[in-house]
Amino acid sequence: MHRQALEMRERILGPEHPSTLVIVNDLAWCFYRQDELEEAEITCRRAFKLRVKVLGLEHPETKISLNMLFGIYSNERYSLSGKGWSPLHIAARDGLEVVKLLHENGGDSTLRSGVGLLLLIIASQHGFVQVVKLVPEYDADINVPNNDGWTPVNFASLQGHLEVVRLLVEKGADINVSNNDGWTPFIGASINGHLEIVRLLVENGADINIINIKNGWSAVNGTLSKGHLDIVRLLVENGADVTIPNNDGWTPVFGASLIGHLEIVKLLLDKDADINITNYKGCTPVNAASMNGHLEIVRLLLDRCADITIPRNDGWTSAKAASINGHHAVVQLLQRGAVTTEPNTEE
C-alpha cells in the first residue's frame, strides 16, 4: 500500500514534495518493521538524502531519517547479513555534509564494512575530495587496505580522481603498494588512461617499471593494450623499460603489433625495442601482426628489417599465419617485401 501511494505521489506531486517525503520515510519504516532490512536501508537512505536536499541537515524530519539509518546499521540482523556498513560509510558515499553531521553524532571513521571497505577508501573510490580532506582529521590511516588489498590511492588512481590522488600523495600515501591482484596505483592509472594521474605519480617517485606480480604486466605493457599512446610516450620518455615481457612472453612491441596499435609500435621501435623478440609460442611481432591482418604494422616491421622467416613453435611462418586467416594483402606484402608506397587495400 505504501509503495503504491509513493508511486502515485511521485507521479502527481513530484519526488521532492513534502507529502512524497513522508511516504518514502513511511515505506522505509514499514520495511524495517517487517525485518526486510536491506529494502529498509535502501528506502531510508533515499528518504534521508531527499530530506537533506529539500529540508536541510538540521530539520527534525531529516534527523528522523538519520536515526532510522542508525537503527538499521546497528541492528544485529542487518550486520549478520554481510553488509556491516556503518553510518559514516554511507556518509562517505553520499557526501561531505552528511559526514560532518554523522561525525557530530558519534560516527566512527575507523569502522570496517563487511567487505573491508574503510570510510576513506569509499570516499577515494567515489572522488569525494572534501571527504578525503576531512577523514584524516579523525585518525583514519590513508594506507590501510581493504580485504582485497586496495588502498585509497589505489582506488582513486584507478577511477581517475586526480584531486583525490594529489591530496593522498601530499598526505604520504604509498604509491607503489599493490593490491592482492598485483595492481599498483601506477599500473591502474596507466591502463585506464588517466594521463595526468600517471604524470603526478611519476613526479612523486612511482616505480615506472613496477610489475604486476600476478601476470607480469608492466605499466607500459598494460597501457598499450588499451592504445593509450600519450601515456606510453610519457612512460618511455621517463625511462620505462620497453623490453620487459609479461608472463606469456609479451613484450610491449609484441603486444602492440598483435593488437594493432601502429603509432605505439613506431614509438617502441624508435626506443630500440627488439623487433624479433618471441613469446612463449615462438611468435614474433611480425608474425603476430600478420596473423591479425595489421597490414601497416607488417609494412613498418618489414621496413625496420624484421625477420619474416622465423617460424612459430608450431611451424607457422608470418605468411602462413596471414594466409590461413585470410589476410591476402599481408601475404602479398610478405612475399615481395616491404613496399612503403603501397596503399592499404586489405578488406
Automatic annotation (TrEMBL):
InterPro entries: ANKRD_45/46/60, Ankyrin_rpt, Ankyrin_rpt-contain_sf, TPR-like_helical_dom_sf. The keyword Signal does not apply. Keywords: ANK repeat. Pfam families: Ank, Ank_2, TPR_12. ANK repeats lie at residues 148-180, 181-213, 215-247, 248-280, 281-313. This is Uncharacterized protein.
